[in-house]
């Protein structure tokens, strides 16, 4: 496949979705082909699964059910959206991927990070991003941002305890430490303009042909 696969990770409220919008603006200015997508979601079936996963009314959902639903949505997203774009030589920018399941379900839900990873390796047939941006932010700051700016979009995971989000944050840091060749850590506590600038600079280093 001639395309490049770049994923964006971070705890709730880290601003990665806003940063993605800034990157997309730059790509448009340079007339570059890309696919901007998200997980769970990205196509009709995966978006339907997303609605189930994040429904605040479904408080009785079992942790393994949740993990399996994420993997199912990811599989459909990969086959229907990501792989075709990569085969066409496009840059794929994806808001969350396997790392999210490893930290949220594996660590946060206590299912085991390796167990959740193996489930997702089956779902994705081992497709790994070319590189990943991880936007690091303390959970209490991220949750405060959500409460202030995203009150109408609070989902089932946003409502979890601070202990849950601290566990997720620690698991993200461990992933970044264990995968320094793939995961680029960005300090998301900086002003948004600086976060976007740092991310774009790293993209130019990683994908120099893209911004010629």
TrEMBL record:
Domain (Thymidylate kinase-like): residue spans on this chain: 8-195
Residues the record lists as binding ATP: 10-17
Catalytic activity: dTMP + ATP = dTDP + ADP
InterPro entries listed in its UniProt record: P-loop_NTPase (IPR027417), Thymidylate_kin-like_dom (IPR039430), Thymidylate_kin_CS (IPR018095), Thymidylate_kinase (IPR018094)
A single cellular component GO annotation: cytosol
Keywords: ATP-binding, Kinase, Nucleotide biosynthesis, Nucleotide-binding, Transferase
Membership in a protein family: Belongs to the thymidylate kinase family.
Full protein name: Thymidylate kinase
Organism this protein belongs to: Liquorilactobacillus mali
Gene: tmk
């Amino acid at each position: 496949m001639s395309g490049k696969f770049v994923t964006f990770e971070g705890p709730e409220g880290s601003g990665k979705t806003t940063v993605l919008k800034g990157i997309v603006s730059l790509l448009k200015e340079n007339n570059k082909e890309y696919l901007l997508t998200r997980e769970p979601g990205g196509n009709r079936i995966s978006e339907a699964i997303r609605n189930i996963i994040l429904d605040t009314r479904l408080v009785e959902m079992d942790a393994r059910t949740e993990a399996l639903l994420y993997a199912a949505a990811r599989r459909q997203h990969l086959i229907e959206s990501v792989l075709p774009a990569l085969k066409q030589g496009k840059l794929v920018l994806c808001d969350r991927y396997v790392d999210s399941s490893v930290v949220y379900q594996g660590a946060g839900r206590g299912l085991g990070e390796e167990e959740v990873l193996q489930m997702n390796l089956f779902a994705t047939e081992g497709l790994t991003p070319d590189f990943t941006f991880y936007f690091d932010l303390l959970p209490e700051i991220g949750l405060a941002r959500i409460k202030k700016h995203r009150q109408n979009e609070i989902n089932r995971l946003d409502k979890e305890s601070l202990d849950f989000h601290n566990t997720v944050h620690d698991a993200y840091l461990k992933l970044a430490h264990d995968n320094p060749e793939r995961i680029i850590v960005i300090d998301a506590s900086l002003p948004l303009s600086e976060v976007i600038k740092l991310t774009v600079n790293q993209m130019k280093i990683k994908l120099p042909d893209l911004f010629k």
